[in-house]
Design goal:
Layout (H helix, E strand, L loop, with lengths): L9 E5 L3 H14 L3 E4 L13 E3 L7 H15 L4 E5 L2 H9 L1 H4 L10 H8 L1 H11 L6 E5 L13 E5 L2 H4 L11 E3 L2 H12 L6 E6 L8 E8 L5 E12 L9 E6 L4 H17 L3 E10 L4 E8 L7 H10 L6 H9 L14 E3 L4 E3 L3 H5 L4 H12 L3 E2 L10 H20 L5
Parallel strand pairs: 1-2, 1-4, 2-3, 10-14, 15-16
Antiparallel strand pairs: 5-8, 6-7, 6-8, 9-10, 9-12, 10-11, 11-15, 12-13
Length: 420
């Protein structure tokens, strides 16, 4: 689908994953708008969609992407262009090249310094400590230094502080997150990282036990005055465990079921406002079974890959104004394009809906604990949504891809089963 010449503004989205498609779907649901997606190369997530014009960059090297975006801007003409990133590295690229891109694009992200104060994990944990917000015990290893901290709590989690820089790192056995059982395994892993090209910090963090259903999420929208305006809370039912997508949520239940969720939201709000943030941001956290406290893991300086749970919850609650597309247009393009206004204060979505990218038969095999019970009830009530299953789609090849993607989940979950 090509962007119509008559379309009054154009969303341009770096990336090619479910998060990219979800944002394009949200713009189409809200305005009938076609978004331009800019992946390295086209793929089934984006192809044959009524909501997406796929314009591959070929290379995701920074200078190549900037040049590609500048050419796209010239082609798309003299109308507002909103520029988004689907991954942390996209957001930092956009913010880092603001001077080159902003003449043509409206950029709905804070400055690079603010983004790095949140996205770099050593900065995030320091802020949590300053505000007294719970987080796992953490130490840092500077790649290439050879100075491994002493008295580490094995088993532990090792992960990059700079997820943008991690993308280019190359070494055998690389994962998004590594579980390390002892000092010998850690020495081996850090040696491989030292020779990978990654130059940032490695987070060495106590392992909080518990399965996927202990994971917690919260997405916030903050206006340009720095006031948090609405939030959606989610409890993960099950995650994906294939190495390339490890840690991505496959199913999420929304709502605010207890006091721990309320506290998590208030603590997230305190972090967001302390940062001087604006736009969207998402927190990852985990319920620690030892003390019943939700411990913060990280802040993503953007809408998350699975952010459509926020939109699904808002729609169920009757909050059409909470569609992220409307928030972006309202705040950055103005009343000429979006006349609705937000309620006063912070609105927290409390409606329950099941977000899932899995076939129901597969999901039912992985329902555990109280979160699983909530998911089972929503499955029975048919209160679920798959971001790829958009009724506005018409092309047969689009629906063939959606069915094939669902079927492929059986294979992935057999090969990489979830933790309990």
């Amino acid at each position: 689908m090509r962007v119509p010449d008559s379309q009054p503004f154009v969303p341009v989205i770096l990336g090619g994953d479910i998060g990219t498609y979800s944002l394009a779907r949200e713009f189409h649901e809200a305005y009938g708008a076609v978004s331009v997606a800019v992946p390295a190369g086209s793929n089934g997530v984006l192809e044959h969609s009524v909501a997406v014009d796929v314009r591959p960059a070929g290379s995701m090297e920074e200078n190549d992407v900037v040049a590609h975006l500048q050419c796209l801007a010239a082609e798309l003409g003299d109308r507002p262009l909103l520029l988004f990133g689907s991954l942390d590295l996209h957001v930092t690229l956009i913010a880092g090249h603001r001077d080159e891109l902003e003449p043509a694009y409206t950029i709905p992200y804070p400055d690079l310094a603010t983004i790095e104060s949140a996205a770099l994990k050593e900065n995030f944990y320091a802020l949590c400590a300053e505000l007294g917000i719970p987080h796992p015990r953490t130490a840092m290893y500077r790649a290439g230094s050879g100075e491994i901290p002493a008295d580490l709590p094995f088993p532990l989690i090792a992960k990059p502080s700079d997820s943008s820089g991690w993308v280019a790192a190359k070494f055998a056995g690389k994962q998004k997150v590594h579980t390390v059982n002892n000092a010998a395994e850690l020495t081996d892993l850090l040696g491989r990282i030292d020779n990978s090209g990654y130059t940032g910090n490695i987070v060495l963090q106590e392992l909080i036990e518990g399965g996927d259903s202990n994971m917690r999420l919260a997405t916030f929208y903050v206006d340009r005055t720095g006031a948090a305006r609405y939030a959606a809370y989610g409890e993960v039912v099950v995650e994906e465990h294939a190495p390339i997508v490890l840690g991505n949520s496959a199913a999420i239940v929304t709502g605010v079921p207890d006091a721990a969720a309320e506290t998590f939201i208030e603590q997230g709000r305190a972090l967001i406002q302390r940062l001087g943030w604006h736009g969207f941001a998402m927190f990852d956290a985990k319920l620690d079974p030892r003390d019943g406290v939700v411990k913060f893991f990280e802040l993503n300086p953007r809408l998350g890959r699975n952010h459509y749970y926020l939109t699904a919850a808002a729609v169920t609650q009757g909050w059409d104004w909470a569609n992220p597309a409307r928030a972006y247009v309202r705040e950055w393009l103005g009343a000429r394009f979006e006349a609705t206004s937000l309620p006063a204060g912070l609105s927290v979505s409390r409606s329950e809906v099941l977000y899932s990218v899995l076939p129901s038969a597969l999901l039912r095999q992985h329902l555990v604990g109280e979160v699983g019970q909530r998911a089972a009830a929503l499955l029975k009530a048919r209160a679920s949504v798959n971001p790829l299953a958009y009724r506005g789609e018409r092309h047969p090849r689009r629906w063939f891809y959606v069915v094939a993607a669902l079927a492929n989940q059986f294979r992935k979950f057999r090969q990489y089963p979830p933790r309990r």
